[in-house]
Design goal:
Elements (H helix, E strand, L loop, with lengths): L1 H6 L9 H4 L15 E3 L2 E3 L27 H6 L7 H9 L3 E9 L6 H13 L6 E5 L7 H4 L8 E3 L2 E3 L1 E4 L2 E5 L15 H14 L5 E7 L6 H9 L7 E6 L3 H16 L4 E6 L4 E2 L6 E2 L8 H9 L3 E4 L4 H9 L3 H4 L4 H27 L1
Parallel strand pairs: 3-9, 3-10, 4-8, 4-9, 10-11, 11-14
Antiparallel strand pairs: 1-2, 5-6, 7-8, 12-13
Protein name: AAA+ ATPase domain-containing protein
Subcellular location: Cytoplasm; Nucleus
Pfam families: ParA (PF10609)
Length: about 350
């Protein structure tokens, strides 16, 4: 501990990620996610008085920059101009009608499972073109869940060709680029960001009705990157996945604050593992009793829509392990019925969101 104290003794200012990392990140068109501008230099909304600002000649070089997580980024000059990839991605995704992000505060709550089921459900309408993008760079599970493990991504003149599960359901994941599903992706933030940029810009998505983006848990580099790169496109919003326990809800509240901070609309919250429905008597038993009211109470407190409460069903896990659609395999299960209602709510939201966008333009 004393060694740590000595190491930090010369650090004048310590910034949290929420203060500096995203607040000073460039947007398309040269804007910044900040409302403070002093001396002609853009600064975080919660800036320290010694911060020179991201557009200053002293950005990343001033003594006050020591200890800031964005020092290297500011010193490189990258914050002084918008990333040209943002405009390229906007052009590439201009033929995608709806973009939906699936988030969770904690791992293991069924986020990737929900993303896969959402994609399957949307693609059950043969007139709709759907794609599922997995940006969980270090823990890609979508290839296994979608039953395409071992499939190869091919390069064409139009870019990378995604792997198709059905004629109208495409998937892209770093798991499809690995030589073995057991290979570990040991990357820091910049390499993760570069891969996400390639997925959005270099994949031949074609005309899509829905693009579902499965993200890793938490609020890490991948989340910042996907929001930044989609900043100049129309994103319908985020679906946040949780379980009834307070330990999960606590992290979900952080996820909600992240969405509000980066101005990402929240479509609603889904509570997974919400009781167990007996297949014989049809009664529901609480396996994980909600100690603080579960997602229902949280949504009421935060004025957010609760899209649904999906009960436990062992057949969901089995379908994922086998790479099959649970909704097709067990269409009459209580969980499948809840899924269908949730998906309908999401479709209604997207349709209304487009109408609102058109009325304001």
């Amino acid at each position: 501990f004393s060694h740590l104290v000595n190491s930090l003794s010369n650090v004048r200012h310590i910034y949290s990620r929420s203060q500096c990392y995203f607040d000073t990140w460039p947007r398309a068109g040269g804007g910044y996610t900040t409302d403070a501008k002093i001396g002609g230099s853009v600064k975080p909304s919660s800036y320290d008085i010694y911060c020179p600002g991201t557009t200053s000649e002293q950005a990343g070089k001033s003594a006050s920059c020591q200890g800031c997580p964005n020092q290297t980024l500011c010193a490189s000059g990258a914050t002084k101009a918008p990333d040209p990839a943002i405009a390229e991605i906007a052009e590439k995704l201009s033929t995608v009608k709806h973009k939906i992000l699936v988030l969770s505060g904690k791992g293991g709550v069924g986020k990737s499972t929900f993303s896969a089921h959402l994609a399957h459900a949307l693609a059950s309408d043969s007139t709709k073109e759907v794609a599922l993008l997995d940006v969980d760079i270090c823990g890609p599970s979508i290839p296994r869940i979608m039953g395409i493990e071992g499939e190869q991504v091919h390069q064409s003149g139009s870019g990378w060709s995604p792997v198709y599960v059905d004629d109208n359901l495409a998937v892209m994941s770093i798991g499809l680029l690995l030589s073995s599903p057991d290979d570990a992706v040991i990357w820091r933030g910049p390499k993760k960001n570069g891969m996400i940029k390639q997925f959005l810009r270099d994949v031949d998505w074609g005309d899509l009705d829905y693009l579902v983006v499965d993200t890793p848990p938490g609020t890490s580099d991948e989340h910042l990157s996907i929001v930044q790169y989609l900043s100049s496109t129309h994103v319908d919003g985020a679906i946040i996945i949780t379980t009834p326990q307070e330990v999960s809800l606590q992290d979900v509240r952080k996820e909600i604050r992240f969405c509000k901070k980066v101005k990402l609309p929240i479509i609603g919250v889904v509570e997974n593992m919400s009781g167990f429905v007996c297949p014989k008597c049809k009664n529901t038993s609480q396996i994980f009793p909600p100690t603080t009211g579960g997602a229902e109470q949280m949504c009421a407190d935060l004025n957010l829509p609760l899209l649904g409460k999906v009960p436990l069903d062992p057949r969901i896990a089995r379908s994922c392990d086998e790479g099959k659609s649970f909704l097709s395999e067990v269409p009459d299960s209580p969980a499948a019925e809840v899924y269908r209602r949730i998906v309908q709510s999401i479709q209604d939201y997207c349709s209304n969101h487009v109408t609102e966008q058109q009325s304001t333009t």
